[in-house]
Amino acid sequence: MDWKFTRKNHLYLAVSPSIDRGSRYSTVPVVFQGQTFDAGLVTQGNLRAHLYAPGYQYDIIRRKRGHLGIAFQIDLF
Questions:
Q1: 8 A C-beta contact, residue 32 and residue 41
Q2: What is the pLDDT of residue 57?
Q3: Residues 76, 52: contact at Cβ < 8 Å?
């Protein structure tokens, strides 16, 4: 979403979902909370998250074919 509240000033919000799945084969023994897991085990994990990025942009040059601006953005994951 982009809100242009004056000719050269913008406030925007970008939202992006992130889904990642993976598995890993262990080649060395792993110690976790005092318990030892042997090598050769397969671990699996899932990550489902959203990235929120609010920001501000000031356009130094604004033309029909494009613009040159300075942006400030915070990425919240």
A1: no
A2: 96
A3: yes
Cβ density class 6-27: b for 16+ within 10 Å, e for less: eeeebeeeeeeeeeeeeeeeee
26 pLDDT above the threshold of 90: no
The gap from C-alpha 35 to its chain's centroid, in whole angstroms, comes to 34
DSSP state of 77: -
Q: Considering its fold, how many domains does the chain have in total?
A: 1
Please give the Cα distance from 29 to 31 (Å, whole number): 7
Structural domain containing residue 34: 2-73
pTM assigned to the model: 0.60
Confidence of residue 71 (pLDDT cuts 50, 70, 90): very high
Q: Strand pairing partners for 23? A: 44
The pLDDT of residue 12: 96
